[in-house]
Design a protein that fits this description.
Largest sheet: 5 strands, parallel
Number of strands: 10
CATH class of the largest domain: Alpha Beta
Mean pLDDT: 88
Structural class: alpha/beta
Oligomer: single chain
Radius of gyration: 22 Å
Helix content: 40-55%
CATH topology of the largest domain: Alpha-Beta Plaits
Order of helices and strands: EHEHEHEHEHHEHHEEHEHE
Distance between the termini: 47 Å
Number of helices: 10
Strand content: 15-25%
Number of domains: 2
Strand order of the largest sheet: 2-1-3-4-5
Length: 298
């Protein structure tokens, strides 16, 4: 767990943040603080936390509502609630909290709950990794098309429920066949592995990359509107263009990519429609300049 961060959601409680940060140190954990529910939801949408601490604070009912919203969106998240003396945490446990601690926080209690929570997070991660082995592309280790269908359904359901945007990128390499012709298909396969790595390095942790087939990739961008998706696509285009491929094989090959964007809800309300729109936008780039980014016309 070294280097992981714990999110404290401050809701008007009196948690000593400096003391809590010191207590997290021996676990290899760093403390981040979100002041209020809106900031908490934003951070949870952009970063993976093995553990979240939620103050019930002076307004427990509002905090319980936030807890319910968080666990609906991220049901496997491990959340510990911190209750003021006299406040009951029973409702939080019924709503899905992993456990509760009372103020003032005691080191012995913290250590017990931290170890239990981190062990749960570890087991969940291992189980998820085992499940995802069935959803990996054998060559690139990106997710495969079968898993893409599942993720699109889940992300669109979440976007519909909360009214949030969701975007996808459809990426196709330009002239990969020239690499195959010049250096052989093994070199072409090595390029695909490197491309998947380049894409992953230029996405957030909550984004995912899929090999759609051949030299085509799809990236999913939760909580991202069209303008944000365009920025991500432009960054990917530049990263691929500037990356020297096959250096370890004693060569230095340059490649470019054509990328199409589609965004929920304006480009479609289902996975098939979004893929079709992004694919159409990508082909407009292919038929004109290549090495570019496009979204739906209009």
């Amino acid at each position: 767990m070294l280097g992981d961060k714990v999110l404290l959601i401050s809701r008007g409680g009196n948690t000593n943040k400096e003391s809590l940060a010191r207590l997290l140190g021996p676990f290899g954990l760093q403390l981040e603080v979100a002041e209020g529910g809106r900031e908490a939801l934003r951070r949870l949408g952009h970063q993976v936390f093995p553990l979240v601490l939620l103050e019930l604070g002076s307004s427990p009912q509002g905090s319980l509502g936030l807890l319910a919203k968080i666990l609906k969106r991220w049901p496997d998240l491990t959340v510990l609630v911190i209750a003021e003396e006299g406040n009951t945490a029973a409702q939080a446990l019924r709503k899905g909290a992993f456990g509760s601690m009372s103020q003032p926080l005691r080191r012995s209690e913290l250590e017990i709950w931290f170890w239990r929570a981190l062990e749960r997070s570890r087991l969940l991660s291992e189980n998820a990794a085992l499940r995802q082995e069935n959803y990996r592309d054998d060559l690139t280790s990106a997710h495969n098309r079968r898993y893409l269908d599942r993720i699109l359904e889940e992300e669109l359901e979440r976007s519909r429920r909360y009214g949030h945007p969701f975007s996808i990128l459809f990426l196709d390499l330009d002239h990969l066949r020239f690499v195959n012709d010049a250096y052989g298909h093994l070199a072409g396969s090595r390029v695909l592995i490197e491309v998947a790595d380049v894409i992953r390095k230029n996405l957030r942790r909550v984004d995912q990359v899929f090999r759609f087939g051949g030299d085509e990739f799809v990236a999913t961008l939760p909580e991202t509107e069209r303008r944000g998706a365009y920025r991500v696509a432009s960054r990917l285009r530049r990263a691929i263009k500037e990356h020297p491929f096959l250096v370890e094989e004693g060569k230095e090959v340059s490649l470019t990519a054509s990328i199409g964007i589609a965004t929920y809800p304006e480009d479609g309300d289902n996975g098939e429609g979004l893929l079709r729109r992004a694919d159409e936008a990508m082909y407009r780039v292919k038929e004109t300049t290549r090495d570019g980014v496009a979204a739906r016309k209009g």
